[in-house]
Amino acid sequence: MKKRLEILLEGLKGFEEPKLKLEQYVTPPSLTAFIINHASILNELDFVVDLGCGTGMIGIAVSLAGGRAVGVDIDANALRIAKENADKYSVSLDLIIADVEDFYLKGKNFTTIMNPPFGIQRKHADRAFLKKAMEFSKTIYSIHSAGSEKFVERLCGESGFTITHKWFFSIPLRRTYEFHEKEFKYVPVEVYRIERKG
């Protein structure tokens, strides 16, 4: 499933006008496919939330893998592209325009799979995403910049969660903003699988 998923995700449209303040980058298809494949093996795709879903990469991958997904983003233009992407493969993807901090979901048994902002433009921007996910999730998969382990561990300890898995990747980021000098830049990231205790 992983390779087929990655190939399909390569065909999705990215941001037309990425907003630097929102740190909008497309999650690499290979990384998305890895996470979705792992979550699928553990039967965690029944109802998935993607906070800061952008152009829908993660949610569409969930749907292609047989799950149900909801994407939440503050950027209407990104959500328009996400709808186009979902329509391309005729998959269901519920989209909600909202600031992540204002989003509310009743219950505590959902799976969140997300690629939050790394906090390069606005320090600790990823904190709000993790805290929100912890309000309604049983399991969270979250992508962070290298060196985030202490921060993630501390937040887990404060919120009744524990890290069960941690993976290290070097992902290719395409030239997205004018100040980028190279067509591709490899960035080290950490992916966490986090689970509610008890």
- Spans with pLDDT under 50 lasting ≥5 residues? none
Fraction of residues in H or I helices: 25-40%
Question: Going by CATH, what is the homologous superfamily?
Answer: Vaccinia Virus protein VP39
Mean of residue pLDDT values = 89
Tell me the number of structural domains.
1
Strand content: 25-35%
Major sheet: arrangement of strands: 3-2-1-4-5-7-6
> Tell me, what is the CATH class?
Alpha Beta
What does this 3D model show about the protein?
- By secondary structure, the chain is of the alpha/beta class.
- It has one domain (2-12, 20-196): Vaccinia Virus protein VP39 (Rossmann fold), CATH 3.40.50.150.
- The protein contains 6 helices and 7 strands.
- It has helices at residues 2-9, 29-41, 57-64, 76-88, 125-136, 149-159; strands at residues 48-51, 69-73, 94-97, 110-114, 137-145, 161-174, 184-196.
- β2 (69-73), α4 (76-88) and β3 (94-97) form a beta-alpha-beta unit.
- It is globular.
- The relative contact order is 0.16.
- The model has no long low-confidence stretch (mean pLDDT 89).
Blueprint of the fold:
Elements: H1 2-9, H2 29-41, E1 48-51, H3 57-64, E2 69-73, H4 76-88, E3 94-97, E4 110-114, H5 125-136, E5 137-145, H6 149-159, E6 161-174, E7 184-196
Parallel strand pairs: 1-2, 1-4, 2-3, 4-5
Antiparallel strand pairs: 5-7, 6-7
Helix pairs in contact: 1-2, 2-3
Can you tag this structure with a few keywords?
Rossmann fold, seven-stranded mixed β-sheet, alpha/beta, 7 strands, 6 helices, 198 residues, 27% strand, 33% helix
